[in-house]
Amino acid sequence: MAEHRSTVDIAAAPERVFEYLVTAAGITAWMGDWARVEPTPGGEFAVNIAGYGARGTFLEVDRPRRVTVSWGFEGSDTLPPGASTVSFELSETADGTRLEVIHTDLPEGEVAGHVGGWEHFVPRLALAATGQILPPDSWTPRP
Question: How many Cβ atoms from other residues are within 10 Å of residue 117's Cβ?
Fold first, then answer.
């Protein structure tokens, strides 16, 4: 199993960035077109991204420092719902927040697609959290 890490500095306070990880409106501002979330341990985490249903549960919600969810896709044999783990770790900086996204337990065949996804979505999160209105997302996974 593989791991991928992405880091970005965001010119917004951790409390603000945190809301973009735990609310449906926040999540869909930067990733996906629909979300249903219950940000408590054991609560539902569901986001539709480019026609794919990412599904899992919230494993940890430590406001405003960390959000960890299980992650997988409806109908996938290689990465079913809840099969991997995504942690969003926030730390305060002089200019706002450093966000590190850590995706673990990825099957080798899923790494490239998820690296491409996080490389696309993490910068969108940084823009959304600073109040920018982003155009609808046209991202599609790499084959």
Answer: 23
d(CA 111, CA 122) in angstroms, rounded, equals 16
**pLDDT by residue (tens digit) across 10-47?**
999 999 999 999 999 999 999 999 999 999 999 999 99
Q: Where are the domains of the chain?
A: 2-129
| 2-129 fold | Alpha-D-Glucose-1,6-Bisphosphate; Chain A, domain 4 (3.30.530)
Displacement of CA 44 from its chain's centroid (Å): 14
DSSP string covering 22-37 = HSHHHHHHHS-SEEEE
Rounded to 10 degrees, the C-alpha dihedral 16/134/80/70 comes to -10
Kindly report, residue by residue over 117-127, the tens digit of the pLDDT: 999 999 999 99
